[in-house]
User: Fold this.
Amino acid sequence: MKIENLVRENIKKLKPYTSARDQYSEGILLDANENSLGTTATEFEELHLNRYPDPKQHDLRTLVGELYSVNYENLFFGVGSDEIIDLLIRIFCVPGKDKVMILDPTYGMYKVACDINDVDTISVDLNSDFQIDFQNVEQNYSEEVKLIFLCSPNNPTGNLINRKDILKLCSSFNSIVIVDEAYMDFAGDNSLVDEVKNYKNLVVLRTFSKAWGLAGIRLGFCVADNLIIDYLFKVKTPYNINSLTRFALLKAIGNRKLKDEFVTLLLSERERVKAELQKLKGVIKVFNSDANYVLFKCENAVKVQKQLADEGIIIRDRSSYRMLGNCLRLSIGTREENDKFLNSIKKIL
Assistant:
């Protein structure tokens, strides 16, 4: 497969914007119309917030490359995974012509990003076990499909997608396969990051929002073939990752043992909450989860969600999703929060 053949012609021809920091980052910097006197945010003076950050993301690519054993040239960072999703659509999909296949039920932003970019989507159901249904994929596939989106562990169902099936998808179809691993930190050693070198059309999305507890800094990254990475740098805005975000990540990675403790505690609480839900007569099914949330099916899900909200307990109603009638998704909280949820739902059901 030649990735270049999937890229939009205007993107191939695009001459990217060259920022001041693309050329020089040291010396007497009088080239970018910055405020050379300093920053008004004096508490962060050591971060040099009066200067634009490195547009080539050298520090992030080096740091995270070492953390995940990924080559520097195979990394790109975005303002959350959502920015990367949007950029991939813009690189590969001609509006009004090309299409994107989405394996449902899954994260809603894939379709929203396509709709914003005027790119048609093809929704293909997973099977009853929420795994890839290859017959369904083949029946709906066409040469206009440039991207295939799936999530593993899948949001909102919680299960890992079979590794061999994902790789079969990569080898069977002439499209970019994008695997969103936002919740992989909760699922053990099942990441596909190490397969990028073997499948040029595989893009793996990761985030620091979940296990690392950094949702507020909006930082995601992808691992992909260096050609795809080059195109992402070509189309991104000049300084997409700010200095405060970089500083927060540096501090977090220095405290990675705490992340591991978070994961252990959340997984323990997940299993406890699942066991309690399974005891309730009004709960029809509790789905297996490889993430930090639990999907469960109950009677009158919409009503239950609203009753919980009235008591100040907020969970997500997913009953409008394909294949998920009367299903609710619960993010695992602290032990105290989980107990309040369990006490409330026991009274409601």
